Amino acid sequence: GDFFLMLIRFLRFVFVGIGLPIEASAPAYQSHGTEGSHLTNITNTKKAFPVLAVNYEHVRKPFEIALWILLALLMKLGFHLIPRLSAVVPESCLLIVVGLLVGGLIKVIGEEPPVLDSQLFFLCLLPPIILDAGYFLPIRPFTENVGTILVFAVIGTLWNAFFMGGLLYALCQIESVGLSGVDLLACLLFGSIVSAVDPVAVLAVFEEIHINELVHILVFGESLLNDAVTVVLYNLFEEFSKVGTVTVLDVFLGVVCFFVVSLGGVLVGAIYGFLAAFTSRFTSHTRVIEPLFVFLYSYMAYLSSEMFHLSGIMALIACGVVMRPYVEANISHKSYTTIKYFLKMWSSVSETLIFIFLGVSTVAGPHAWNWTFVITTVILCLVSRVLGVIGLTFIINKFRIVKLTKKDQFIVAYGGLRGAIAFSLGYLLSNSHQMRNLFLTAIITVIFFTVFVQGMTIRPLVELLAVKKKKESKPSINEEIHTEFLDHLLTGVEGVCGHYGHYHWKEKLNRFNKTYVKRWLIAGENFKEPELIAFYRKMELKQAIMMVESGQLPSVLPSTISMQNIQPRAIPRVSKKREEEIRRILRANLQNNKQKMRSRSYSRHTLFDADEEDDVSEVRLRKTKMEMERRVSVMERRVSVMERRVSVMEREGRWRGRVSVMEREGKCDGEGG
Amino acid sequence: MGSTNSTLSKIPNVEELMQETGFTPAHIVRLYDRFEALDKEKTGHLRPQDFGAINRLAMNPIGDRIIGAFFSPGQETVDFHSFVRILAHFRPADKKRPKDPSMPEPVNSRTSKLKFAFQLYDQDKDGKISRAELLQVLRSMLEMQVTEEQLESIADRTIQEADLDKDDAISFEEFRKSLEKVNIDHKMSIRFLR
Fold first, then answer.
1. How far apart are CA A670 and CA A30, in angstroms?
2. Between helices B80-88 and B14-21, what is the axis angle to 10°?
3. Which GO terms describe its biological process (chain B) (predicted)?
4. Which residue from A201, A245, A340, B54 has the highest number of Cβ atoms inside 10 Å of its Cβ?
């Protein structure tokens, strides 16, 4: 900010020299005393009308914020323009390096580089990333592996914290290290801060390596769910280190606290999720603000749970997961795209800012270096992670149907990256901790190590070990039908065995959902729609939109009708002859067009497949051809009428049939012959 | 363990059964108890009515097909061996299985599981899922909630997507291919039967 004050001073010198009257308003406050006084003593002669006035203080704060964000995004842009760089080095590393450079630059000028403010981090930068992750969480793999994920998250983190804390305390007891003042609780506190796998770092690195779904969801799920453990451990040890002694009662209360924090967080999230779903039921007349409801309810869920010291991350995840199926049944297609786009955008910006600030904070932060302590911390981090994963997998594999292979274990262990959450928690430590600076330094070193070394080497290692990669798949109706069929089959076989297992409860939940919950949360008559039909309708909708864009307008007619045919309510029928014609056209189009689906991608960098864009340009070519043909068509008048109606429906973003439209069309049918 | 042995001795050819299906003695005993519980009239065989008495199966959209799968064509009753053999399809797959081409495919391998599921679709056993058979399955899964036209368009779409040799039906290979992304080992296994 003061760089700009200097710039303005310089500018003013220039202008005064030229003789233009410039009025510089006195700044309201001075951040760094000295320069300010010069600003006011300019002209004491009669002031001419100020043609140009500079008032930096007026816009200072938003200006700086906007500038930081712009800088961050320009950096991001820059990386992707250098092809080889982004293929080798993960973006997170590059951003940290940029942060280091910027921090260094600021220090050279002689100012204090800003440190990543913990409040800013937890309240502004972290929520968008978590919401993005939670809203688009792939439910099926998550619920299939939730047991494993919980074991890793809870027991794994506890193991890491105690192992590291204990061994570091033992280290500090050794005379030669020179840290004999550190007590056990402080070490345990440090252990608990640095033991948690960080979702931001994991997302940033795993985004780019496209690992298979199982490993991805294991590491990612663990990073999300370990927040509860981290919160409890952190608060616990902070309290204890103030008091100094631990009793059995305290430990017991700690355990109770864990359950309260995690389940409470989930409950708060679920409540807000249901509220959001319920609200979305009534938004059919105000489509424009639909996305805002999603964002605001989720943010409120996060803030509310943070208010009660519950796990905000789990609240956010629960909110996103709960509200998604109902909200998506209610909102328009455009709102869905908006939500997806905005979430990706905000989380991208947040992530970029976090990494840059990490770099800047490293330059800024007070450092206390102790070789032994720091090196031991890094080594212990790795060791405890590997031991933890191997040990837990050994136990977990006894209960899993699909076992985790050695390769999977390796990636899970190696992918346990630490990130900004650890740093922020360390920064939050009050200054009364005499070891605070040492801890911060150690935390930063661990973060750097995991992000740089592990982050950069994980990609070649994945290639080397030939770990299974993610298979890009477009949703197919076959898969949907057959998986639903298999669900029913398994439920039936469980019934034959007399076993009340996984499928039985899933079936019960579905039934409950269908009869009670959907009725309240889904607008209009849609709650009765079976999932298969909803899926099919979405596929058809996508294809219809593509056909409209391609200008094959005669097909628009059948598309809209086939849309409307898929309504559960009885709608006045089109004539049999027309239907046959429609079906024939649709079938022909199916064979011609390549089916592009709404890709279930959680990728930060791409929102659409590259193919879809090619298709659209090819489609535009066809469009011009179609234009000519249309003119000659006999149906031109009727087609233009339908065209208008379709564009109205398109604007509303909904393909729901209106009975009146159909009636009018029926009449049109009659008179047009 | 004494009761296990005594129950096992009641079952004829139990060694062969365990060898064939891979079930442990404990499982065989559990399944035998279940078999006896279903066999209300103690005939040693199960009839379709015995299956029909299971409430959960009655509510199931494809319950009748599942029941049908237990009965070999032409047979009116199921004995314990066939009962176990069918259920063996749902055992979780064994991890370490030597790829021995001379040995027959184990009954709980991915292919066998898929074949079992395929046969539930293919009621007339001609090796293909025809459009009519697909429509029947869709009709039973979607119950009363859709119209005929919707069913027809879905069936058309499904066949279009899966049918590679354009014979307007889905063969076993096409069926297998359309499910290649699904983890069948996980999807078609019941933990209880490990």
1. 80
2. 20
3. protein transport
4. A201
- Per-residue tokens: A3: 């760089």
**Which pLDDT score, from 0 to 100, does residue B159 have?**
84
In this predicted structure, what is the pLDDT of residue A271? Answer: 95
Report the residue from B34, B149, B192 with minimal CB separation from A501.
Answer: B192
- Which of A483, A496, A526 is the best substitution to test chain B (most B C-beta atoms within 10 A)? A496
Beta bridge pairs of residue A54: A24
- B115 pLDDT higher than 60: yes
CB contact under 8 A, A501 and B190: yes
Residue B11, helix vs strand vs coil: coil
Phi and psi at residue A439, to the nearest 5°: -60, -45
Give the Cα separation of A47 and A22 in Å (integer): 9
Contact B192 A144 (CB under 8 A): no
Contacting residues for A452 by C-beta, under 8 A, at least 6 apart: A93, A96
Q: Do the chains contact at B145 and A536, CB–CB below 8 Å?
A: no
Q: How many CB atoms lie within 10 A of CB A592?
A: 8
Q: Do B145 and A579 touch (CB under 8 A)?
A: no
Q: Which of B31, B62, B142 sits opposite A489 (nearest CB)?
A: B62
The CA-CA-CA angle for residues A400, B182, A465, to 5°, reads 70
DSSP letter at A407 equals H
Q: Which of A489, A491, A502 sits opposite B120 (nearest CB)?
A: A489
Q: How far apart are CA B90 and CA A486, in angstroms?
A: 11
E-only strand ranges, chain B: 128-130, 169-171
Of B57, B138, B178, the CB nearest to A479: B178
Chain A CB contacts of B63 under 8 Å are 492
pLDDT > 90? residue B69: no
- For chains A and B, what is the number of CB pairs under 8 angstroms? 145
CA distance B188 to chain A (A): 7
Among the partner-chain residues B63, B154, B185, the one whose CB lies closest to the CB of A492 is B63
Angle of helix A610-632 relative to helix A636-652, nearest 10 degrees, comes to 150
Nearest to A499 among B55, B145, B192 (CB): B192
Question: Residue A127's CB: how many other CB atoms inside 10 A?
Answer: 23
Does B183 reach chain A within 8 Å, measured CB to CB? yes
Distance CA B88, CA B90 (A): 5
Q: Which amino acid is at B70?
A: F
CB within 8 Å: B188 and A529: no
In chain A, which residues have pLDDT < 70? 1-45, 175, 177-181, 244-245, 430-433, 473, 475, 525-528, 551-643, 645-646, 648-673
How many CB atoms neighbour CB A509 within 10 A? 11
Q: What is the model's pLDDT at position A81?
A: 86
- Report whether A645 contacts A563 (CB < 8 A): no
Rounded Cα gap, residues A346 and A569, in angstroms: 40
pLDDT number for residue A366: 73
Residue B94 parent element (H or E): none
The pLDDT of residue B101 is 62
Q: Report the pLDDT value the prediction gives residue A609, as an integer from 0 to 100.
A: 42
In terms of CA atoms, which chain B residue is nearest residue A497? B34
Chain A hits for B31, Cβ within 8 Å? 497
Contacts for A39-45 with beta carbons within 8 Å, 24 or more apart?
A: A39/A9, A42/A12, A42/A16
The tally of CA atoms less than 13 A away on the side-chain side of residue A298 is: 30
Matching residue, tokens 């989380």? A347
Residue A2, both tokens: 């003061």
Q: How far apart are CA A350 and CA B110, in angstroms?
A: 44
Cβ–Cβ of B66/A489 closer than 8 Å?
yes
ipTM of predicted assembly, 2 dp: 0.91
Tell me the per-residue pLDDT of A389-402, one tens digit each, with 9 for 90 and over. 999 999 998 888 78
